[in-house]
Amino acid sequence: xxxxxxxxxxxxxxxxxxxxxxxxxxxxxxxxxxxxxxxxxxxxxxxxxxxxxxxxxxxxxxxxxxxxxxxxxxxxxxxxxxxxxxxxxxxxxxxxxxxxxxxxxxxxxxxxxxxxxxxxxxxxxxxxxxxxxxxxxxxxxxxxxxxxxxxxxxxxxxxxxxxxxxxxxxxxxxxxxxxxxxxxxxxxxxxxxxxxxxxxxxxxxxxxxxxxxxxxxxxxxxxxxxxxxxxxxxxxxxxxxxxxxxxxxxxxxxxxxxxxxxxxxxxxxxxxxxxxxxxxxxxxxxxxxxxxxxxx
Length: 296
Ligand SMILES: [Zn+2]
Prior knowledge:
Blueprint: E1 6-12, E2 17-24, H1 26-32, H2 39-58, E3 63-71, E4 75-83, E5 87-94, H3 104-108, E6 111-119, E7 125-130, H4 136-148, E8 152-161, E9 164-174, H5 183-193, H6 198-203, H7 206-214, E10 219-221, E11 225-226, E12 228-229, H8 235-242, H9 247-257, E13 260-263, E14 270-273, H10 275-281, H11 284-295
Helix pairs in contact: 8-11
The site of zinc ion has 6 residues, from loops.
């Protein structure tokens, strides 16, 4: 198992505080690959990626999560999709490049953060929070305070280490049933967390990092979970979308443009269909096969 691209959960046994640590290198590289984002947006996507991974791990669910920033600024939309297996993908849309040192508000403008959780079974849940605070971390801390009444501390960092782009973060959260008497303990562990340096977050393994921050506390570290980039787009999903359109309409497009090209916004894969492909789609056997693909 590689040392990066892991999510670790831990628990302060005596404090009623739980924590998570995530360190991403390959997943971050995969999310940025094929997109020529300006530096400020690369950084934003790194923070959003780390935040989504940490957020997913706080929620007990089997299903999908979407964390999305929307606004009227230079960056109109930035989103990460993930699931409980920590398979993530994401994309940002922007009108023009923000300044390299732009704050979250300067990039997104007037906007909000939208969190959507879609369990495989049960009701979809959606939470919205206005963009208050200058950083994504502050914004999410406000979200937890407002929607869950849970004291939460988030540290999100992006940067370079050994020539590789890195995105990493820490989350500390009071347990839902934590008593008032643990307020000071929470302040204590979050104050220590704030002393963490970016290069420590990027380069130390979980045990060393937790020892560096909390060698005087009793910390239980659980088995890590792998974090990966999974786009999920495929030719058969494109085919499923195409057969819902009238065949004549598709053939008209091909007559006009030479082909139908479908580009994945997330990974920039391109799927091409010509007249023969379209005829094939609408034969009886293929229709059944494509329907099967939708189910799986
Ligand atoms: Zn894709």
